[in-house]
C-alpha cells in the first residue's frame, strides 16, 4: 500500500494497454492512478518509433550525430527528446539502445500511437521484425515514409543482425561513409525492420529513431 501526504491510501493499478483490435499487451505495475480518464482501455504509455525527416546515405558523421538528429527533431516537434537512432555500430548493439526497465513493459508504436510491436524485446526473436503494412511509419514532421515519394527507397539502415547485434563490417565505416564500395546492413520495409540486406552505403535510406525511455 502507498499513502499520500494526508495519510490516505492510494490504490495501485496496472497500466493496461490494448490495440484497436482488442489484443491485450500486459501491464506495468507500480504507478498510483486515481482513475482512468475514459471507460475504455487506452494506451497510457508506449515507446514511439519515428523516422528522421529526410533520407540519408551511410554518411551521417557517425552514430553520435545520428542520435543527435533524433534528439533535435523530436525536441523541435515538442516531444520528449528521449530518442536515439535505430542502428548498431562498432560500439553499440541495437538491442541494448532502449533502457533496461522499458524493454519488456511497453508496446512499440508509431507517432500516432498505433501498436507495431508488443514490446522492444519482441523485435529481436530472429524473424526480422515484420511490420503490418497497414500501419504507417511517420517522420517527426508527420509524413508517412512508406507512402511519401520523398523517401523513394523504402528501406532502412540498421547495421544489425536479426537479433539486434552489431555487424562489425556492415555499418558504413561507423556511419561515416557513402562510397559505393562500402557496405551497410539494411532492411527493406516489405520484409521488416531487421531484414538482412547488405547494400552500398551510397543509397539514401530511411533512418528510424526509437524512444529509449519515459520520464515518469
Could you describe the 3D structure shown?
The strands form four sheets. Strands 6-12-5-7-8 form a five-stranded mixed beta sheet, with helices on one face. The protein has a three-stranded antiparallel beta sheet with strand order 9-10-11. The radius of gyration is 18 Å and the shape is globular. The two termini are about 20 Å apart. Mean pLDDT is about 85; it is low at about 1-5 and about 10-45. The chain is mostly beta strands and about 220 residues long. It folds into two domains: about 1-45, no CATH class; about 45-210, Mannose-Binding Protein A, subunit A (Mannose-Binding Protein A, Chain A, Roll). The chain is built from two helices and twelve strands.
Summary, kept brief:
By secondary structure, the chain is mainly beta. The protein has helices at 63-76, 172-175, and strands at 2-3, 9-10, 12-18, 24-32, 47-51, 83-85, 108-109, 115-117, 155-157, 183-188, 197-200, 208-211. This is Collagenase NC10/endostatin domain-containing protein.
Whole-number tally of structural domains: 2
- For the record, the CATH class of the largest domain is Alpha Beta
Mean pLDDT: 85
CATH architecture of the largest domain: Roll
Amino acid at each position: 500500500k502507498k499513502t499520500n501526504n494526508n495519510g490516505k491510501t492510494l490504490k495501485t493499478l496496472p497500466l493496461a494497454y490494448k490495440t484497436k483490435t482488442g489484443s491485450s499487451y500486459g501491464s506495468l505495475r507500480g504507478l498510483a492512478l486515481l482513475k482512468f480518464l475514459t471507460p475504455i482501455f487506452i494506451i497510457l504509455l508506449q515507446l514511439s518509433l519515428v523516422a528522421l525527416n529526410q533520407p540519408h546515405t551511410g554518411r551521417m558523421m557517425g552514430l553520435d550525430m545520428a542520435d543527435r538528429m533524433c534528439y533535435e527533431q523530436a525536441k523541435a516537434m515538442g516531444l520528449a527528446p528521449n530518442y536515439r537512432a535505430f542502428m548498431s555500430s562498432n560500439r553499440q548493439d541495437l538491442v541494448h539502445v532502449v533502457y533496461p526497465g522499458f524493454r519488456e513493459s511497453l508496446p512499440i508504436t508509431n507517432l500516432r500511437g498505433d501498436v507495431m510491436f508488443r514490446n522492444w524485446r519482441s523485435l529481436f526473436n530472429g524473424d526480422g521484425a515484420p511490420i503490418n503494412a497497414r500501419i504507417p511509419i511517420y517522420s517527426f514532421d508527420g509524413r508517412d515514409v512508406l507512402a511519401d515519394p520523398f523517401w523513394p527507397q523504402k528501406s532502412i539502415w540498421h547495421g544489425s543482425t536479426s537479433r539486434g547485434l552489431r555487424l562489425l563490417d556492415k555499418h558504413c565505416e561507423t556511419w561515416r561513409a557513402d562510397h559505393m564500395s562500402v557496405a551497410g546492413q539494411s532492411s527493406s520495409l516489405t520484409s521488416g525492420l531487421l531484414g538482412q540486406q547488405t547494400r552500398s552505403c551510397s543509397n539514401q535510406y530511411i533512418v528510424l529513431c526509437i524512444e529509449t525511455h519515459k520520464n515518469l
